[in-house]
Specification:
Layout lengths: L4 E6 L5 H10 L6 E5 L12 E5 L2 E4 L4 E4 L4 H9 L7 E5 L6 H8 L2 H6 L2 E9 L10 H8 L3 E5 L8 H11 L5 E4 L7 H4 L22 E8 L5 H11 L3 E8 L9 E6 L2 E6 L10 E8 L5 H9 L6
Parallel strand pairs: 1-6, 1-7, 2-5, 2-6, 7-8, 8-9
Antiparallel strand pairs: 3-4, 4-5, 10-14, 11-12, 11-14, 12-13
Length: 308
């Protein structure tokens, strides 16, 4: 089973390590492997630490943290050989690193097959002047992002968040922008429901703990018409924060496809056959509360399986 990667980028002092610390301390049953440049900056509560050896800190909740030393691909290969394998890998980049270079490295065919890049998170300090986004490095960090997290809002004046959101929009960044107080980010955005879900069906909307987003699922035992699906996603795109799923198409029966939608971009890739008992088509949609109704979603998706 492939292990998805979450890439965390952002300028020096933006709060990336705080975000990673929060993810590790609140894994909620996920085995997360964090790869960080500044290993000593990770500050997990002492009661969570189970042991440390060979540059790896093991946590009692099943997570681990290791230092990014030398070649990134070699580090990832080492993590993927662990038993048990992590459920997710989080990579925290250096504050002066251009994430585009790292994304290119992660497109290595061997790594892409075993550890696909699923989400790019850009952490942005809300106390910095919006004009700082004109910096070439910060523009690059924003350009590759699926999600932008505004940090240090408690230190900024009341209108700082709004001004920063307007500055991000002016850069034509399609990413979802969220507030990240104390490093907290809606987990539904960072770790969308995956093909590993045990429940074969979801009868209705599930709301994450965070009050801004809700998760809606759609399943079917029928293959879908790819052109109709593409049209439906085009109409749904303005309302979606994330979407992910697996389906078979009428045009190519028996060939599962993995669908991803993030940062305004949709991708398709070959997938694996579903586990016994799971429907052939299962897609999770994440949207802001009240923006997308279950009835509207069901109607648009049901039209994708109509004959003709």
């Amino acid at each position: 089973m492939p292990v998805p990667i979450l890439l965390v980028t952002g300028y020096l002092g933006a709060g990336k390590t705080t975000v990673v610390n929060h993810l590790l301390a609140n894994a909620k049953g996920r085995r997360i492997a964090a790869v960080v440049n500044d290993f000593g900056a990770i500050n997990i509560d002492a009661e969570l630490i189970a042991g440390a050896s060979d540059g790896v800190v093991s946590l009692a909740n099943g997570c681990i943290c290791c230092s990014l030393e030398g070649d990134l691909l070699r580090t990832l290969s080492t993590l993927l050989r662990r038993d048990p394998k992590p459920d997710y890998i989080v990579i925290e980049t250096s504050g002066v690193a251009d994430p585009a270079d790292i994304v290119r490295n992660l497109m290595d065919p061997v790594i892409l097959r075993e550890a696909p890049l699923e989400t790019v998170l850009c952490v942005l300090d809300a106390t910095t002047p919006p004009a700082s986004l004109d910096d070439a490095l910060q523009r690059s960090q924003l350009r590759v992002a699926d999600i932008v997290a505004l940090t240090k809002l408690d230190l900024a004046d009341e209108g700082a968040g709004l001004r920063m959101r307007e500055a991000i929009r002016s850069q034509r960044v399609p990413a979802v922008v969220v507030d990240a107080r104390h490093g907290e980010i809606p987990s539904a955005l960072l770790f969308p429901a995956s093909d590993r879900a045990q429940a074969p069906r979801d009868p209705g909307p599930k709301r994450p703990v965070e009050e801004r987003f809700e998760t809606l699922s759609w399943t079917s035992d029928q293959p879908i018409a790819l052109p109709r699906f593409q049209q439906a996603i085009g109409r749904l795109a303005p309302k979606l924060a994330r979407a992910k799923g697996v389906f078979e198409t009428i045009e190519q029966p028996g060939r599962p496809m993995v669908f991803q939608f993030a940062g305004g971009r949709a991708t398709l890739a070959p997938g694996e056959a579903p586990a016994p008992g799971l429907p052939r088509t299962r897609i999770v949609f994440i949207a802001e509360l009240g923006v997308l109704s279950k009835a509207e979603l069901d109607a648009m998706m049901e039209a994708c399986i109509a004959a003709g």
